Amino acid sequence: MGRSPCCAKEGMNRGAWTAHEDKVLTEYIKLHGEGRWRNLPKNAGLNRCGKSCRLRWLNYLRPDIKRGNISPDEEELIIRLHKLLGNRWSLIAGRLPGRTDNEIKNYWNTNLGKKVHDHQQQGSASDLKHHKNGEPNSKKAKMMDMAAASSHVVRTKAAKCTKVFINPHPHKIPLGHNHQHYNEETNAGGLMFDDKPAAMDDDHINRTRSFSSFSNINADQENSTSDFLVDFDMDEISLANLLNSDFPEINHDDLNHISSDNVMSRCVDETAQFFSEGMLQHW
DNA sequence: AAGAGGGGCAACCGCTCCTCT
DNA sequence: GAGAGGAGCGGTTGCCCCTCT
């Protein structure tokens, strides 16, 4: 299936973006919104590839971007999510408001990856000490232990999700499936796609929509437990809650043999394992 | 003071998936 | 159903800056 290159490479600006280019792109997107990246450079008068524009906007120019100063909580969350999801940077970034996949990927490669690796080497020698009393010495050590066991990473199915599934019977939504954005207190059974709360940005809406499509693929046997993590809202669930919970190891044999008949109940059970009872009640 | 080496990070590349016709 | 285009993702590259010698 041949296809034309996304842009003519000859004559295109490459490399670092200038302040002027940033300004042009920002103003164009403010005026016309995101999307149609392929035509954007031409329409905006930028001598850049559309993909380059998209990347620049998503990673640096968006107004809600947080840069640098990754907090210890965020760091621990990244480790946990990486343990669960592997190198699914976009999913991990989606759980950290204001953070981009590129930033997290870089942060992992330059900081966390090394830390985890170092700890893995040290840990193998000191595991016995750590667990002598039944528990690791510290929360941090526990975190590193989990992250180090990267062989247990669950690979979610890569999917671009644009379809929205709205459950006609929201009260029947099983625990662990759509409850992430089914807030009983504020949205009595209604998904929040149209009534956008003031505190909710477009990105959140997009993520919510994205996750909704996962609910549409319950027959997909590959859709393992980790998919249920794709859209819990970090604004609703504090980092502390998440960090205080434990992610048990996942039995991949189990995941591979979930039948379509019991996939839902399994997912509910497994989701419950991932999060503390308190967190589930909070949802 | 200057060159070498390494680390961090922004940007690019290629692949994959989804949608549309 | 097949092909083409649009968009997103993860891996990799290359530049810049800082530190070390």
From TrEMBL:
Keyword tags: Activator, DNA-binding, Nucleus, Repeat, Transcription, Transcription regulation
Location within or outside the cell: Nucleus
Gene3D superfamilies, A to Z: Homeodomain-like (1.10.10.60)
Residues covered by region (Disordered): 116-140
Main location: nucleus
One Pfam family hit: Myb_DNA-binding
Domain Myb-like: 9-61, 62-112
One cellular component (GO) term of this entry: nucleus
Domain (HTH myb-type): residue spans on this chain: 9-61, 62-116
Domain of life the protein comes from: Eukaryota
Protein name, per record: Myb-related protein 123
